[in-house]
Design brief:
This protein is α/β, with parallel strands linked by helices and about 375 residues long. The protein has twelve helices and 13 strands. The chain has two domains: about 45 residues; about 280 residues, Alpha-Beta Barrel (TIM Barrel).
Length: about 375
């Protein structure tokens, strides 16, 4: 009798091998699954460390002068930068009362860009309404106007500035801040006047990027007005504008006239970075009786501690020598905060008065 043919895939030996192989594969999968499950947190953390961060938080690593060497790595929130007196009136760390909330209903107009600043026919302007009252200064007294630049991209940098610096230090917010109005409200509640940074084309453009809404030389007038209005409408309650970079953008009359007139007609001040105000800006401001000033000292964001201290000392010497005012723009970095806090502590001994930025733009207003 002939043998019955059995296919190999039905043979006991094959089925046994298949079962053993399947068990081995399942064991491998079980090990992989267990490794992923148990190590998921570490794996995700490792991946996150390799991803570029979108928001850069500035960690305060120094201590405030006079605090006994205590290092506060957890700055107070914006809302804790003031306390209440017995009568319920809010005061700032420097003892100055809060500024009135913004906006004034008479100083804004609705637009597709948001609330735009305007002046009233009676002469009330955003500059006059939102500025911080200057300290009493006699003629010939050296004074320094210190402003902290480019705030709004790091909540920690903003909160540290708010809780560390006296109210006579002005705050410059970037229009690219995600929640600009909240920052304005917190700053004014703590007694600080607010300025808005105006992005403009820098000399090394496009290697240095001023952002997607900057005023550009090759952009049409309508395009630049669109960018200007977008910036103006991002928040309200600011005293004026300050150019984001040293630039020659406003030296070209055809390009700058309508933009400057729009700024000044809305009752805003304008501060330009550099040794002096561009003559054309000065002429347009004079026609509108608008406040203008030049920020002589603008400390780079990548400056080291020694360089920052040297610039600050040079500015103080300049104020003492000329018996006039100097404007210093400070980057929002820990080394600059630390150096500036030590620097302004010495002002009373040197006879220097710290005053808001608006007092430099219009000392007689």
């Amino acid at each position: 009798m002939s043998e019955i043919y059995t296919p190999i895939y039905r043979s006991p030996l094959f089925l046994k091998g298949l079962a053993q192989g399947g068990a081995a594969v399942l064991a491998v999968y079980a090990l992989i699954f267990s490794w992923l499950w148990l190590g998921a947190e570490q794996t995700i953390a490792g991946l996150e460390e390799r991803l570029p961060a979108q928001n850069i938080e500035i960690e305060w690593t120094g201590h405030r002068p006079g605090d006994g060497g205590h290092t506060d790595s957890h700055p107070h929130s914006a809302n804790s930068a003031h306390s209440e007196d017995a009568d319920g009136q809010k005061t700032t760390p420097s003892g100055s009362t809060s500024l009135t909330p913004a906006p004034s209903p008479y100083l804004v107009e609705d637009s597709k860009y948001g609330p735009l600043p305007v002046s009233t026919h009676r002469g009330l302007s955003p500059f006059k309404a939102y500025r911080r009252p200057p300290p009493s200064i006699s003629s010939g007294t050296p004074r320094v106007h210190l402003a902290i630049d480019n705030l709004g991209l790091s909540q920690k940098a903003f909160e540290t500035a708010l809780s560390s610096f006296p109210a006579d230090v002005s705050l410059i917010l970037t229009p690219y801040a995600a929640h600009g109005q909240n920052l304005v409200d917190s700053a004014r509640e703590a007694g600080h006047e607010v300025w808005l940074s105006l992005p403009v084309e820098p000399p090394d453009f496009p290697f240095s990027d001023p952002g997607s809404r900057a005023l550009l030389k090759d952009l049409s007038l309508e395009g630049n007005k669109d960018h200007l209005f977008w910036c103006l409408g991002r928040m309200t309650g600011y005293t004026g504008l300050i150019s984001s970079r040293i630039t020659d953008f406003f030296s070209h009359e055809t390009r700058a006239r309508d933009l400057l007139d729009n700024i000044f007609e809305r009752g805003l001040a304008f501060v330009e970075r550099g040794d002096g105000v561009t003559p054309y800006i000065e002429r347009r401001a004079l026609l509108r009786n608008a406040p203008v000033a030049a920020a002589q000292y603008s400390i780079p964001a990548d400056a080291a501690g020694v360089e920052i201290s040297n610039i600050l000392e040079t500015a103080a010497t300049d104020a003492l020598t000329t018996k006039n005012h100097v404007i210093v723009i400070l980057p929002p970095i820990p080394a600059a905060y630390y150096a500036a806090l030590k620097w302004i502590e010495e002002f009373p001994k040197k006879g220097i008065v710290l005053a808001p930025l608006s007092a430099a733009a219009a000392p007689d207003m």
